[in-house]
Amino acid sequence: MSSSASLLRSLSKPSNLRLLLPTSSSAFYSLSAPSRKVLLSARPAIPSSPLTTIPSQTRRMSSAAFLEAVKGRRSHYALSKDLSISSDRVQDIVKEALREVPSSFNSQSNRVVVLFGAEHDKFWDLVSETLKAIVPADSWEATAGRLAGFKAGAGSVLFFEDQTVVESFQSKFAIYADRFPGWATQSDAILQYTIWTALEAEGLGANLQHYNPLVDEKVAETWKVPATWKLNAQLVFGGRAGEAGPKEYLALEERYKVYGA
Ligand SMILES: Cc1cc2nc3c(=O)[nH]c(=O)nc-3n(C[C@H](O)[C@H](O)[C@H](O)COP(=O)(O)O)c2cc1C
């Protein structure tokens, strides 16, 4: 089992580069540089967490260790409320990932709400009430069983995209207006994956769910989430109470090409 700290460390950049854009030669990054700088300087940097104060020369890990964490992540559905790490550690992982994952134009549209204990239970009760009203009676038992499995976990990470950020970038960079919603979702997916992989690297189990948009209004009301935050996904986590199921793989030959190696 590899620790998530080395995984997250590999995502960290030196703090003096925090506000600089990558020097990519991509066409879109070469557009309107002055406007980009104004936008970025207007955004306060998120303060460093203890994980990012590691000297830069130690911020190296082999790709083998990183890929070990990638391989170690699975969908674990049998979860318990016993966390082998503290809730503070879970939060550090979530905050570090939130700070470091990339976003188009460094727009930082990702938003997160973490629910532990009774608040996590409340979320799954709320999903249950919402679904009970619409699921046919003869399939309710199966649905209820599935939801009980999620509630049996220790916590949930709710992932959102802030639409005010997406819209502001659409108006500032009109040429890419139709691309920003997709880019925001891609950035959020990277965040979901990073947190999922990091929690599993700590020995926890997790699985990814999508009860949005059915529960969006109740979530916003219950946890005072701004109306502009669009819910994308829910990552349930907890202690591992069972193994992940078998997984089939398509042949890589069907999915991969290389030229010039
Ligand atoms: C974009 C995305 C959406 C997913 N949505 C769900 C979901 O709504 N419910 C669920 O149980 N699993 C969901 N999964 C998990 C996949 O079913 C799972 O990752 C896949 O079967 C491979 O298994 P593994 O996670 O164990 O590697 C989702 C995964 C991805 C990447």
Automatic annotation (TrEMBL):
GO molecular function: oxidoreductase activity
InterPro entries in the record: Frm2/Hbn1, Nitroreductase, Nitroreductase-like
SUPFAM superfamilies (alphabetical): FMN-dependent nitroreductase-like
Protein keywords: Cytoplasm, Nucleus, Oxidoreductase
Pfam families named among the record's database cross-references: Nitroreductase
Annotated GO CC locations: cytoplasm; nucleus
Residue ranges of domain Nitroreductase in the record: 70-238
BP-aspect Gene Ontology terms: cellular response to oxidative stress
Gene3D superfamilies attached to this UniProt entry: NADH Oxidase
Keyword Iron: no
Compartmental location: Cytoplasm; Nucleus
UniProt entry tagged with the keyword Oxidoreductase: yes
Xref: PANTHER family: FATTY ACID REPRESSION MUTANT PROTEIN 2-RELATED
Similarity comment text for this entry: Belongs to the nitroreductase family.
Record-given protein name: Nitroreductase family protein
Organism: Ophiostoma piceae (strain UAMH 11346)
